[in-house]
Specification:
The protein has three helices and three strands; from the N terminus they run H-E-E-H-E-H. With 121 residues, it is α+β, with helices and mostly antiparallel strands.
Length: 121
């Protein structure tokens, strides 16, 4: 998720997400939800984004645009870190940090999900 990577690059966290959907013919739908605690981590942002998409109740409308925006940004240093007993989440956070360092050194396309890589030949 590019939003999470950009927030972490800027040392920021978001307290809320806003999803804006544009439909054919001009109407727009917008919904904002606050997070339980400020975050810039992809897992937290993805979960809230999915909740916003579910709230939209999309069925057959022709979607022409989608925007996800972080609202009420704070400095990442101001966010309290809760100790976690969830080893899987902790491993994802460590991997996310390593991926951020790789992208900073080798560029944004240096690491991404395996399903998005193209065949080299």
């Amino acid at each position: 998720m590019q939003l999470g990577a950009e927030l972490r690059r800027r040392d920021q966290a978001t307290r809320a997400l806003t999803l804006t959907l544009s439909f054919a013919g001009g109407p727009q739908w917008e919904k904002t939800r606050r997070m339980v605690e400020p975050s810039g981590h992809e897992d937290d942002l993805r979960l809230l984004a999915y909740q916003l998409m579910d709230a939209a109740g999309l069925q057959r409308g022709r979607l022409t645009g989608l925007a996800l925006r972080g609202e009420d940004l704070v400095a990442a240093g101001q966010v309290a870190e809760q100790l976690s007993l969830d080893a899987a989440r902790q491993a994802r956070l460590v991997a996310e940090s390593a991926a951020d360092r790789i992208r900073a050194r080798f560029g944004p396309g240096a690491i991404c999900p395996a399903a998005t890589y193209r065949n080299a030949s």
